[in-house]
Amino acid sequence: MGKKHKRLFRNILSRFVLLLVPVIFFTFCQEKEKSDETNLLLLGAIVSANSGPSTVCQTNADGTVDTTMPTIKKGTFALCRPSNGAVRHYRIEGLKIIGGHTAVSLYVGLPENYSAEVNRNSTLAAGQFGMNFYSGSGTGGFVPGYAYANFGPNESNIKNLTSNGNSTAPPAPTVAGTSLINFIEQEVDLCFDLTAAAPPRLTVWVSGKNTANCKTRTNLTTGNALFNEVTWTGGDPALATGFSFIGLSANSGISFSKIVTSTQLAAP
Fold first, then answer.
1. Quick one: which of 1, 70, 213, 259 has the most CB atoms within 10 Å?
2. Which keywords does the record carry (predicted)?
């Protein structure tokens, strides 16, 4: 090969290399970007898997539906519900609340897209129901732990589940009353019926009280209930059809194993 041809070949090779370098660089950048995106997606999947869903639903053979929470945390969460029919019976298993001013609130008859916070001071519309479990401060006349139910916006409908049956607006129940439900010193299984009547009948049982066993249900009657309420005032209608939500006021001090919902009343 002559000098002229060698020089021409070197010039062509140099130009080819100069053209090839940007292509290689561009390809490398694209592959790195794809790799970075893949790593981010994998990281997101790992984080999602570790954090878990806020609630988990499980339908049982008897038609009841379980709501469980992998991690108890402060917030408002929708309860799972059966696919057909309105929920008429609720069961909270292993409920225990400790610590001052800590509460669990279960509200019924809310819209599906409900986004506000559910807490023991939430205002209810006509036909909506709330059940609250509160661990008080133990000072200033508060009962250390008590439960109360309310139906609709009328404050006269607030019913403290205490031994004397008196009703006063929260946060101060009747001091003379003793809480019928001790979820402070021990775990309790509690269940209640809400009928379709106008106004609804509320019937509450606690396992171990008056021979009741919420998990069995076959022995639950109005006669061995811990609490019966059929006298809601103010002309409130039947229980609103809608969704049920639970509100947890803290990340700690609250524990329960699951909440079970059913379309069947325990005591028709």
1. 259
2. Membrane, Transmembrane, Transmembrane helix
The DSSP output letter for 13 is H
Write out the two tokens for 211. Answer: 């021979």
Q: Distance between CA atoms of 92 and 192, rounded to whole angstroms?
A: 9
Q: What is the dihedral of CA 30, 34, 36, 38, to 10 degrees?
A: -170
Cα separation of the two ends of the chain:
106
The Cα-based distances of 79 to 96, 106, 240, 257 in angstroms read 18, 9, 16, 14
| C-beta of residue 205 within 8 angstroms of C-beta of residue 214 | yes
Beta-bridge mates of residue 111: none
pLDDT tens, position by position, 125-171: 999 999 999 887 655 544 567 889 989 988 778 888 888 765 555 54
Letter for the amino acid at 88? Answer: R
For residue 193, pLDDT beyond 80: yes
pTM here is: 0.77
Read off the pLDDT band of 224 (50, 70, 90).
very high
DSSP assignment letter at 232 = -
